[in-house]
Structure formats: C-alpha cells, structure tokens
Amino acid sequence: MLLKIDSFNLSFCIDTGKKQPEKKQVLFDVSLSIKSGETVALVGESGSGKSVTAFSIMRLLEDSSNVECNGTIHFEDKDVNQLSKKGIRELRGNRVAMIFQEPMTSLNPVYTIGNQLIEPLLLHQEMSKQEAEKEAIKLLKRTGIKEASARMNLFPHQLSGGQRQRIMIAMALACRPSLLIADEPTTALDVTIQAQILELIKDLQKELGMALLLITHDLAMVRKIAEQVHIMKDGKIVEHGDTETIFNKPNHPYTIHLMNSVPNERRVIKLEKDPLIELHDVNCRFKIKSGWKGFMQRDYKIIRAVDQVSLTIHRGTTLGLVGESGSGKSTLANAILMLNKSTGKILFKGKNVQNLSGRAMRP
What we know:
Blueprint: E1 3-14, E2 22-34, E3 39-43, H1 50-57, E4 67-75, E5 78-79, H2 85-91, E6 96-99, H3 113-124, H4 129-142, H5 148-151, H6 161-173, E7 179-183, H7 191-208, E8 211-215, H8 219-225, E9 228-233, E10 236-242, H9 243-248, H10 253-260, E11 277-294, E12 297-313, H11 329-336, E13 343-348, E14 351-352, H12 358-361
Parallel strand pairs: 3-8, 3-9, 6-7, 7-8
Antiparallel strand pairs: 1-2, 1-4, 4-5, 9-10, 11-12, 11-13, 13-14
Helix pairs in contact: 3-4, 4-6
C-alpha cells in the first residue's frame, strides 16, 4: 500500500486568552488508503476537511498552526508523523507533491517562473542548471504553456490565472512523485485545457505508477477518472467504495443528497422585451512595448484583446462566456464596468455607460 491513513484525528488548538487553549476537532477517525497507480477521489462540501486531510499527509499544518493529532499516516511504510525535518523535506515535492487550489498564494511573487520550476529539479533530481532549465521548459510545454522559453523569465503576476495554475501543475510534476495530491486541479483552467491536463496526469500515472488523490467538487471528473471515491462530511468519511457503486447505489443520506444535487434540467424563463445589457461591436486595444525601432525610439504593437464583440443579456438570465486563458473574457467584463477603455457601444438599461461620469459609475 502506497498511502494508508488509519483512524486519524486532528484538532486545532485556539488561543482564547484563557490558561488552556480551546481545542476544535476537525477530523474524526479518518481512514483512507491508496495503492500505487490508483486514483482516489475525496469529495465533499467546502469546510468538510478535505484539504486539511491532504495537508496532514505532507505535514503542512504544523509550521503555521498549533495542532494535535493521533492515529497514523503511513507513506511507503514510513510513519509520516515520525519523520525528521530532513525526512519530511525529502518527502515533500519529491515523493509526494501537491497542486494547490489557489496558485497566486502558492507561487513566490518575487521569483521568476523559471527559478521556481528549476529549484526542485536542482534540489531533488541532481541535475545541472542547464539540464534543469531544459526539463523546466519541457514541463511547461507539456502543461499547455505557449512560448515556454519566454515564460520562464516572467513573474507570477504577469500571467493569467489559468497560466498560473498550469505552472503549479508543472512544478508538482517536476520530480515525478509517487503520489500527487490535486486540490481542485482544474478550477482555474479553461475548458479546452482541462481534458489535456487530466490526460497528462493519467499518462504520467501509467508511465511512473504514480497515484493520484483528487480533491474536487466536479462529480463528472470523479466519475471519469477515479477508481475509488471517499465522501467526506463534517470531518468524517461517511461513505467510500468503488466509483460505480458510489454513483449508482449510494447508501449514506449525504451521498444521496450529493448525487441528487447535480443539475439535470434547465429553467425556462420568459424574457423581458428590452435587454438589461447590450454590447454592440465592442473593441479593446492595448499598446505594448515590443522593442526598439531606432536609436532611443521605442517600438510598439497593438494587441486586439476584444474584437467586434456583440451580445445581449436579459434580466434573470445567465450568459456563459467561454474561452481559453487570454482570449479576452476578463477584458470584456472589465470593459462593461468601464475598467478598460473600449470602443463600440455598451448599453445598460438602454443607457450608454461609456458616456457616464466616474461619479455616475459608483454605487
């Protein structure tokens, strides 16, 4: 067994100003096991204890929180809670890696993407700097990053949310771990890259015998790639079993509720005559530096972030705007709020918001 969690309990010790800290138990007798090459999904609502369980496997809570725990977590027959500081450093990122849900809080804002990708390769893989740079570029390409060599010199804030999440995935896969913990791994990714990332992870599983602990709310993803499913509620594993059994014959009331919560029909809404928002041929252009065209003369190029976009939104309806990272979705939303300059017409209740003053745009 690659990973075995047995009757694990965890409490946070909260300082309330009294002599004894208040204990808040968040995990109750959690038991879970993963074989080499197996995909296990941990499913539950926010606050149910999924991420705390994942953090406990890598002992990520002890440095930032006062915690008490009992029970055991064994990885490759070693008790994780008994490892020395050196032992846990060798475990993290090398044998066990994690894709965090929010990449902006996980990536170091003052180091380039290249530096952050190369560091674990130098630390764990005994590569030369040149070899590590080549491997880092290869990882970026495999996770769908275009112009990978150029991206190596960028900082996290210079990338879109989807690109940052792909960087996190590349970093997690850098040392080819035995266990990959993926906390909502495709949350920030566009629909066209989600399938590629999941396929990449599955390919690496076959290649390396890598196991995957998948933490997600996406039941469609779970059914597609997981072999075992654990349902978590209020810090407890309330039901577990193979994927088809959990989906087709759930037993616990919460599991039944979870399966029934998947939307399967659409509301029919009678549209009002006049749209709430109308966009007519909206364009957003940005002038960016692209080098030098002569002595002390900057050269610029025009980026068409939004090009001739028209749409209407009626009150009470939901409009989905879908596209790859960098396709202009957020830029268009910012233009509607007058946070980006634009041309064309943007009408709200029949009024052109582009003609409104800054005061009129405020609530």
